[in-house]
Write a structure and sequence with these properties.
The chain is α/β, with parallel strands linked by helices. It is built from eleven helices and twelve strands. The protein has an eight-stranded mixed sheet, sandwiched between helices. It has a four-stranded antiparallel sheet with strand order 2-1-4-5.
Length: about 325
């Protein structure tokens, strides 16, 4: 697995498998994924809808609900495998050490409670602080994400989508986590607000936090991330330096994503990727991308490709064996 030289690893995911068990069969949402995140690093996790990005994030913070189950692997955070910890100890890590910005702020915030009450509840759950101090801290947190402190007295429905997303970020950083996972934080926001949210995440990274951005917007990840993880059908198919990945993608799926994204700097034809992602309860034999791959070979239909290290990146493809 590719790691940055001289960097201190904060989180290491090893051979993680998260499956969902249903009457239709076993859905392999995250299938043998290995990756790392360093302190102060910005990682982008990209791929089409249903590729396993969000399931990977929820697996890391152990919020997989039945019929889903983590069936194998390790999630080593600060040297400890958090998959082996009792739930009570995991609750202390969740929020305090690892913060999560959920995808839809309107469904994540309680519509019947003031914003301040919701932030205060998070703070007092983990820190010894009286309610007055917690309210003061909540107001300062809102100011730190570009809102006025008086927004603590507002209800979610009184705020715009961008403001609610900033509140979700304020809640996620309220306990000063070392790792912040942002699951599609700019979905349904206009371009101007999207840019402000990304600037805010960048500022948090500069303060020393590691950021894991989950997004289907490849250009957004490329613009901000140090390294990019490309997921397809539950697999991590390529992982490495963002600039190298864009200039010379190793995996045909990575190349397809890049070709399908408009580029205002280069006059080129946009090429939509043919086909659709597979049914993960019944994936194709061999390589899961081979039915859509322009470079598929005979072996691609017969055997699952190995994960190899090429040019400081990892790639799961028969082209390099």
């Amino acid at each position: 697995m590719s790691k940055m030289k001289g960097a201190e690893v904060l989180l290491e995911v090893k051979n993680l498998k998260t499956y969902f068990f249903s009457r239709r069969g076993v859905l392999r949402a995250v299938d043998d994924v290995s990756m790392s995140i360093n302190r102060g690093e910005f990682i982008g996790v990209v791929g089409e809808s249903g590729c396993g990005k969000s399931t990977l994030a929820f697996s890391i913070i152990r919020l997989i609900l039945p019929p889903g189950k983590i069936v194998n692997g390790q999630v080593i955070f600060n040297g400890r495998d958090i998959l082996k910890l009792p739930e009570e100890e995991m609750r202390k890590i969740r929020g305090k050490d690892v913060g999560m910005i959920f995808q839809d702020p309107m469904t994540s915030l309680d519509p019947l409670e003031k914003i301040g009450d919701q932030i205060v509840e998070t703070i007092m759950e983990h820190e010894k602080m009286d309610k007055k101090e917690a309210w003061e801290k909540a107001a300062k947190l809102l100011e730190s994400v570009g809102l006025t402190g008086d927004r603590v007295n507002y209800y979610p429905h009184q705020l715009s989508g961008g403001q609610r997303q900033r509140i979700m970020i304020a809640m996620a950083i309220s306990l000063n986590p070392q790792l912040l996972i942002a699951d599609e934080p700019t979905t349904a926001l206009d371009v101007v607000v999207q840019e402000k949210i990304m600037d805010l995440l960048d500022d948090l990274r500069k303060e020393g936090r590691a950021i894991m951005l989950i997004t289907h917007d490849f250009s957004l990840a490329v613009d901000r991330a140090d390294r990019i993880a490309v997921m397809y059908a539950g697999w991590l198919v390529e992982f490495g330096n963002a600039e190298k990945l864009v200039e010379e993608p190793l995996h045909p799926y990575s190349d397809g994503l890049i070709q399908s994204v408009p580029d205002i700097w280069i006059d080129r034809e946009i090429k939509p990727m043919p086909g659709f992602p597979p049914d993960l309860t019944n994936p194709p034999s061999g390589c899961r991308f081979q039915p859509r791959c322009p470079k598929a070979m005979g072996i691609c239909k017969e055997k699952e490709p190995p994960t190899l290290e090429v040019d400081g990146r990892t790639v799961k493809c028969w082209l390099y064996k």
